[in-house]
Write a structure and sequence with these properties.
Helices cover 42% and strands 16% of the residues. It has 352 residues and is of the alpha/beta class. Helix 6 packs parallel to helix 7, helix 8 (232-244) crosses helix 10 (284-297) and helix 11 packs across helix 13.
Length: 352
Amino acid sequence: MYTFLRSLMFQLEPEMAHYFAMNSIQMGCRFAPLKKIIQQNCSFNHPKLEKKLWGLTFKNPVGLGAGFDKNAIYIDALDYLGFGFVEIGTVTPKPQLGNEKPRLFRLPKDKALINRMGFNNDGVLAIQKRLAMWRNKTNAINQSNLIIGANIGKNKDTPNEEASSDYCLCFNSLYDTADYFVLNVSSPNTPGLRALQEKEALREIVSRVQNANYGKTKPKPILLKIAPDLSNQAIDDIIELAEQTKLSGLVISNTTIGRETLKHTSKVQIDAIGAGGLSGAPLYQKSNNILNYVATQTQYRLTIIGSGGIFTGEQAVEKIKMGASLIQVWTGFIYEGPGIAKNICKTILQSK
């Protein structure tokens, strides 16, 4: 059924298709009979899938990566689709439109996407209000156990030397409504952002956010999302910094700026699309290489969320065996459909 629906959706422009599909699911979840059908077909719960981490209990280890629900609009629907956690954002202090359209491209022959969205979001104040409303509603009615992560970044017009202030503002604003935080310094779609992965620039951001965090009554888990295009030396620097500043872990990885793993899409099409981050199946091995390197270098001490190219339960299990405590999907959701969390959870359970 989803193969047929996907063929129809792929007739629409990618960004339009994304919002049409999610709005349709969200609307369907407002009607009890449809909500029940969605939950039955897309959720899979079992006590052995629970994961306790950072004082939080994840109902399962399958999450949805940042960028899918940038503005915390679809949390109810994503909860019914069976995810153990959802990472909203990337959130910036001020609202921003992002880059010019078109900025999202499908490469179906390679089961991939290229995006250059540019941190388009409604801004931290609007998103904080939305999360607070969801928290209040679920506490009163739904009793949801969905874990919410907040992926935070800087505005495009904020100079890099002032970036730490943007991250601190977002952290403080969302502290009461998010369960964990991810510092995004690795998107290729904000000019100069990846320079913040350099050791001293990164130290400034992480140290300031951690100082704010440990000033709270109950510090929250803070992770760092890194690019798959880093050298081993750069990764070693990040590992050292993560341990020195007591980061809760790393998200491995963001999209890649490389195109060498595209095997089936024509060069003409790739060149016509231009810049942007590549995700999906061609990212799988590249992200695995980084994940494996970090896990072995730290002797599995550092918590890792494995992200990049996961389409099947077997791929999720492979990342977990390499050292990931949790996994995230994104592009796999587009190609495999709303049953992806259920399918992965079943395979993870069978592997235990």
